[in-house]
Every structure is written in structure tokens, then in C-alpha cells.
Fold this sequence. Notes:
Blueprint lengths: L5 H8 L13 H54 E2 L5 E2 L1 H10 L6 E7 L4 E4 H4 L28 H21 L4 E6 L5 E11 L2 E10 L2 H49 L9 H4 L4 H48 L5 H29 L1 H7 L3 E4 H14 L8 E4 L8 E4 L1 H18 L11 E8 L2 E7 L34 H11 L3 E8 L5 E11 L4
Parallel strand pairs: 9-11
Antiparallel strand pairs: 1-2, 3-4, 3-7, 5-6, 6-7, 8-10, 11-12, 12-14, 13-14
Helix pairs in contact: 1-8, 2-3, 2-6, 8-9, 12-13
Amino acid sequence: MASATATAKSEAGRKPRRGRWRLPGSRLGRLIIALQLLGLAILIVGALVLNELRRGLINSRIDSLTTQGEFIANVIDKAATQGEPEPMLEATRAADTLQLLFIPRSQRARLFNAKGDMIADSYVIADRVEWKPLPPVRKPGEMRFGWKPQDADAKPKVLPEARAALQAEVRRALQGEAVAGVRIAENGDRVVSVSIPLQHVQAVLGVLTLEAGDVDEIIAAERRALTPFILIAIGVTLTSSFLLTRVVARPVLRLARAADSVRLSQARAISLPDLAARDDELGDLTRSLETMTHSLSERMDAIERFAADVAHEIKNPLTSIRSAVETLDIVKEPAQRERLIAILNQDVGRLDRLVTDISNASRLDAELSRERPRAFDLAKLLGDICSMYDAGARPNEPPIRFVEPMGLEPVMVMGREGPLGQVFRNLIDNARSFTPLSTGADRPEVRVSLARSHGQAVVAVEDDGPGVPPENLETVFERFYTSRPKGAVFGANSGLGLSIARQIVEAHDGRIRAENRADETGAVVGARFLVSLPEHRG
């Protein structure tokens, strides 16, 4: 039967490596989050950088227009204002002064009087005409790409809004405060605008408005600058998607195909060494599936061997029973018939014992999985078992003596008390069967002792029998192996007791072995079976 420690070994093989600092959480989860956030981070950083650039460019433009506007306002104040008998702005001289000053083509300057009426415009003074390139010639009835019927009404809608924004800016400047910001121009473009009041002493005589129409060019340049970030983000996203497909999706698909291969009986176990070597969740999953399928394969092999052994062991008594039954009709003498009937009874009893032990062995894995391990006092369990044997012992049977461990602290182990009790009963029964029967004062006995050794609870079951042949110290734990002393009843043992004991002990992460006891001269004086179980430190 397959060992029940496969799962525990698998868990032990997946213990995290020490001495290596790692972020909490899933390794693949961190990879997925990092790859997906990388492209987003690039876009965010690019947007923040360009937003700061845009804000810096607009602020720089506002500062430049403010400096230029203050200079022009001072010149107009000196050249086109008078204060006697009351302050006033001479519109003609102010327009002439504005005409003499240099106004860049990308800018527009306008003068407003104290009532908010425009008295000068640099576009009009310089005879500038707003122009745009004409669209390509199209055939009759053909509509230009991107043109919509509602575009024809776009400019009339923008014009009132632009004039209202300009009038609001002028009104604020007439209250004596400089106004700067971004607004919509009459042509629908966004412009950086600065309105500076024209003051003579404390009186506001008019407003000078300077506009720079290169805001859209700045924004377009920003968008062009953002294009590399967008392309990089797209590239990172595509790369991360490809990596996730390669790192996660394809290995999972390989695992699924390997599992299907096992399910369709094309393979006995999953074997993907390259995936099992990975230090992440997929590596853990692969190792777990490999361990699970290998355990299932070993279990299937064990079941096949067990079935073959069972068939072989059952075949012997059945053959004997068939021969006795066939001979029974031929034999006429009562003595011979009684002998054949005795053989039949013996073989039936042997067959019944075999079936019972085989049934117990086949149910062992299920019983071990149903009962949950718990901590218990091993010394108390051994004491109770030995007391039970002593209470039912016959006068000529060897006594069972329990040697209690030294110390007051109990010897605790973690396990299933019922199956472990079966182990020690099997060992005691085996020791009693090899111990000679005697009624003398120094008659042989079976000794059970318990000791601690390097974190292990060690149980020793000793007898005073002939011992075990050295070449059979390991063979005795194989299924259906029997080697009885002379005089023992044939067929009284199925050969499964020690095999079941080893299976239970290994399921508890323990170890069982056999050795011979020797005296001072080196002669074998008995056998000793040692069971080591991990001690529980609760």
C-alpha cells in the first residue's frame, strides 16, 4: 500500500526559503500587479510631467505678457493721458502710441476706455487679416472628411461666448486689478490673455488687453510629447500581457494537458521538471501535482502487487480444500476421513484468517484518514495494553512486562491512538508466538519498554525466542512473509501483522526496525523490535 506520508513530504518540500527577504503576498500576484501598473505608471508620470510643463509654459506666457503690458500701459499713460481739469484718456493719441509700439504677430493688443468700449485694436491698426489654409478642392456633392453639417454653425456659437468672456475680463480690469488667464477667442481658439488697467494716479482711464494665441500650439506640442509615453505604455502593456501569457497561461495549459494525459491513462504521473523548478505558486502547484500523481501511481502499483499477493495466498488454501473435498468421496476409512475433515477445517480457518487480515489491511488507509491525530500519553497506552494481556494470560503463556520510562514528565506523541495500539498489539503477539512456553520461575517473558532519544519516543518490544535470521531482518516486514518456529501451528498467522505495523508507523512519520539480542558471548537470545515516533512538545 502507498505510504500516507507522501502529503507530508510534499509539504516539507515546499517550505519557504529562509534568509531571503520577500514582500508579503503571492509571487505571481505581485508580478501581475507590477506589470499591469507599470504601463499605467508611465502614463501617469508622463501626464504629470507634461501638465507641469503646460502650467509652466502658460505661467511663463502670462508673466511675459504682463511685463509687456505694463510697459505699454506706462507708455500710454505718459503719452495719451492728462489730468487737468480731470483725468482722461485721449483715444487718438493712445491708438497712435499703440501703433508705434512693436506687437508680435502671435499677439493681439486692444485698448478699451473707461466705459469698456474698444478704442484701438492692433489687428486693425496693422491691417492684419485672420487667415487659415483652405481645405482641398472636392468634387460636387462630396463632403470633406471630418466635416459635419453642424460645423457651419460652430463659429456663430463661439463668437458671443468669446465676447462675453472678454467683456467680463475688461470689467474686472476696470475695477483696478490686473487680470490674467486663459479664455476662448472669437475664432474659437484658446488664448492667454492679460488685461492691465490704465491708471492716472488713482483713476482707471481704460484697459489694455494683450492676447497670445499660441496656447493651442503649446497644447498640441504637449500632446505630441505625450505620444511617446502612450506608445511606451502600450508597449509595456503588450509586453506584460505576453509575459503573463508565457509565465502563467502556457504553464497552466501544460499542467492541464498533463492532467488530461494522466486521466486518459496515457501516463501514470505528471512529470514537468522545468515547471517544478520554479520558485512561485505554479512551481508549488506543479510539485504538488507531481507528488500527488506519483503517490497515486505508487498506490496503484501497490494495489496491483497486493492483489497478486492476495490471489497467491488465497490460492493455496483453496487448492488444499479442493484436493481434500475431491479425496473425501474416495476415502472410506473413518480415520482417514476424519483426517481430511481436520485438514478442511484447518484450511477454512486459515482462509478465514487471511480474508479477515486482508480486509483489515485494505481498510487501513481509509481508517487512518478518517481519524484525526491528537496528542496522547504513550506510556499510558502501553501500560493499558500490557495490563490487558496480563489479565487474560494463560498459565503457560509468557508474561508481558512493561518497563515504565524514568522521569515524571509524560511521553507525549501526536497520532492516532487506535492504529498505534494495533501496532504494539501486533508486535506483542508476534513476540509471544516466538517465546517458548514455560511455567518455571525463570520462564521467558515479553518486555515492553519506553525511552526518549533525541526528540523521539522509542518503544522496544523484546522476546526470549530464537531471534530473526540476519538476512530476514528487513524481510519480516513484507506482506505474507511468515517464518514460524518448529512446532507452531501451520496457517495460524497470515504474515500481515508486521506489514500493517510498518504502514501505520510510517503514516505517523515514524520508523520501525528489527534486530537480534545477544548475550556476552554473542549468542542470539531473542529478538527486539524498535518503534520510533516523533515526541510531541505541546
